[in-house]
Amino acid sequence: EVQLAESGGGLVQAGGSLRLSCVASGFTFDDMTIGWFRQAPGKEREGVSCISLTDGRSYTADSVKGRFTFSRDNAKNTAYLQLNYLKPEDTAVYYCAADRRPWGGTYFCRTAPFNYDLDYWGKGTLVTVSS
Q1: Among 9, 25, 21, which Cα is nearest to 92's?
Q2: What is the pLDDT of residue 54?
Q3: Which of 16, 64, 95, 106 has its CA 20 to 30 A from that of 127?
Q4: Is 44:89 a contact under the CB 8 Å cutoff?
Q5: Which of 100, 93, 131 has the alpha carbon at shortest distance from 7?
Q6: pLDDT of the residue at 55
Q7: What is the DSSP string of 63-100?
Q8: From CA 93, how far away is CA 113, in angstroms rounded?
Q9: Nearest Cα to 97, choosing from 38, 54, 18?
Q10: Would you call 113 helix, strand, or coil by DSSP?
């Protein structure tokens, strides 16, 4: 079965940390664009951090720069999003996505998911940050 599965969400106080994981099954991350997205209650989905594994082109949203870190472990076919210094406004369902097309990270996060059907989406993991 080809799928992405997120985990690691939960309830945390403001200023705390979480690490989200995205495990791929049935395909490889090699040479694929990977991204993390989120959707807060009552708001539109937004790109958080995305990277092309082909050339390393990446993007991180201004709202999370310096707080969130994208990483991957290809041996485990897993992508991570480390969430530090969390704020209540970070509360959202976080999704990972992957696509075989060699887009740059900026385009993948900001444009591609809203204009194209991406190859793979996870079902999301909920992050709730209390004040």
Answers
A1: 9
A2: 63
A3: 106
A4: no
A5: 93
A6: 65
A7: TTTTTEEEEEEGGGTEEEEEE-S--GGG-EEEEEEEES
A8: 16
A9: 38
A10: helix
Q: Strands 10-13, 125-130: parallel, antiparallel or unpaired by DSSP?
A: parallel
pLDDT digits (tens, 9 = 90+) for 69-78: 999 888 898 9
Closest CA to 68 of 110, 20, 33: 20
DSSP state of 11: E
Helices (H) and strands (E) in the chain, counts: 2, 11
Burial group, residue 75, by CB count within 10 angstroms (0-12, 13-18, 19+): exposed
Stretch 105-113: mean pLDDT = 93
* Single-letter code of the amino acid located at 25: S
Residue 111 confidence (pLDDT) above 80: yes
Comparing CA positions, the residue from 90, 79, 84 lying closest to residue 5 is: 79
d(CA 51, CA 57): 6
Q: pLDDT tens digit string along 2-51?
A: 789 999 999 999 999 999 999 999 877 777 888 999 999 999 999 999 98
